[in-house]
């Protein structure tokens, strides 16, 4: 078979969730909440279905939802996107990311990817015929940081796109204003585009501010900005997200979008559009998850795990070198089968499988789930 992704296997998230379920382990691996979304959100969707919103929506997304997204971006980041020409609703962030890559990367062009990186980026670049250029984050006292000098050094005349992700999966780090300024300096005067994965935009802790590229006109003018309702509203299974980009980029995005999904399910778009009028759910999210983060971190303080900083996302990375010298995937497997708590090896987020003795736990769980996991982990 002469196929496109011969080296790609099943994602680590599917594998670890299957292993967790096989061994009845508490699943802190794959990132998804184990609690229900707000009942009001379900009421909005139910009302939309009963009102007859059940046929194909516009290819670009239900207008009311695009308007609501534009209003939110304006309210939160002070950036103005035209809902008709600069916002498209997608089947989750994953489809937005792949579509953005496919619409702008030509065969042989380079895409700079900061590792560890979310696992969908590399296969999407490969499908486009692009060449991934990985640059590793550095891990120091402050946790993971992006070495902008090495990003600058990785730029060549063939660089088409730089992918950034803040808050960052899996490390839980966030980009600060100085990072965005460094990125601006790198791309100024070039025709390099930016793909900014901001699915955890509303999960930033300790009073920090989410540095969306939307806040920086010089960057926003060359960026696809991606988010996901799955993360913000605790409905990862709905697979609805969006992309915001200047009209010229969005026109190209839509050419691909219309032929890989055409459009995204109608009733949920209507439900989200009316539900979004209330900012409370995303405004309250940092406090909601910060409390869970702290519960989880406090529970591990007496253990031999070393906690890395967790400034954003719903992930906590830990070093386990004081417990075991084994490879990350073996350690995550052992945690799942023997300790009965599933985790994700951070090595799965590197193209070359770099080993740092670190695994990722997801704390988007009921307190009782976290307590049960902590009972098992705190003994290690
Ligand atoms: N990007 C990152 C960094 C993610 O963690 C996720 C969630 N797994 C996605 C994109 C995909 O989001 P969605 O489920 O909306 O496709
Ligand atoms: N984004 C989720 C995570 O990092 C998983 C999404 C998926 O299963 N593809 O755990």
Automatic annotation (TrEMBL):
PANTHER family in alphabetical order: FI04487P (PTHR43807)
SUPFAM superfamilies hit by this protein: PLP-dependent transferases (SSF53383)
UniProt keyword terms in alphabetical order: Aminotransferase, Pyridoxal phosphate, Transferase
Superkingdom to which the source organism belongs: Bacteria
Name the record gives this protein: Methionine aminotransferase
Cofactor: pyridoxal 5'-phosphate
Family named by the database record: Belongs to the class-I pyridoxal-phosphate-dependent aminotransferase family.
């Amino acid at each position: 078979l002469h196929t496109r992704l011969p080296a790609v296997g099943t994602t680590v998230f599917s594998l670890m969730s299957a292993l967790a379920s096989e061994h009845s382990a508490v699943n802190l691996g794959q990132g998804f909440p184990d609690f229900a979304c707000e009942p009001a959100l379900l009421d909005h969707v139910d009302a939309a279905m009963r009102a007859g919103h059940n046929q194909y929506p516009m290819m670009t997304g239900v207008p009311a939802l695009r308007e609501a997204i534009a209003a939110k971006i304006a309210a939160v980041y002070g950036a103005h996107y035209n809902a008709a020409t600069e916002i498209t609703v997608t089947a989750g962030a994953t489809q937005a990311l792949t579509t953005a890559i496919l619409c702008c990367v030509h065969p042989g062009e380079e895409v700079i990817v900061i590792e560890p990186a979310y696992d969908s980026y590399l296969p999407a670049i490969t499908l486009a015929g692009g060449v991934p250029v990985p640059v590793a984050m550095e891990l120091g006292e402050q946790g993971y940081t992006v070495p902008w000098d090495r990003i600058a050094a990785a730029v060549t005349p063939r660089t088409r796109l730089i992918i950034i992700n803040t808050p960052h999966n899996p490390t839980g780090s966030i980009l600060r204003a100085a990072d965005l300024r460094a990125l601006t300096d790198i791309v100024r005067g070039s025709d390099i585009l930016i793909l900014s994965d901001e699915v955890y935009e509303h999960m930033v802790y300790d009073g920090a501010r989410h540095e969306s590229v939307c806040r920086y006109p010089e960057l926003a003018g060359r960026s696809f900005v991606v988010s996901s309702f799955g993360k913000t509203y605790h409905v990862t299974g709905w697979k609805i997200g969006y992309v915001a980009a200047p009209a010229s980029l969005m026109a190209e995005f839509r050419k691909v979008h219309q032929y890989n999904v055409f459009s995204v399910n109608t009733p949920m778009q209507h439900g989200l559009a009316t539900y979004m009028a209330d900012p409370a759910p995303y405004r309250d999210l940092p406090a909601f998850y910060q409390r869970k983060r702290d519960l989880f971190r406090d529970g591990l303080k007496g253990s031999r795990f070393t906690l890395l900083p967790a400034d954003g996302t719903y992930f906590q990375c830990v070093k386990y070198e004081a417990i075991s010298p084994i490879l990350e995937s073996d350690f995550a497997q052992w945690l799942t089968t023997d300790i009965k708590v599933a985790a994700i090896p951070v090595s799965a987020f590197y193209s070359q499988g770099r080993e740092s003795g670190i695994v990722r736990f997801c704390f988007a769980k009921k307190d009782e789930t976290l307590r049960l996991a902590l009972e098992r982990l705190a003994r290690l």
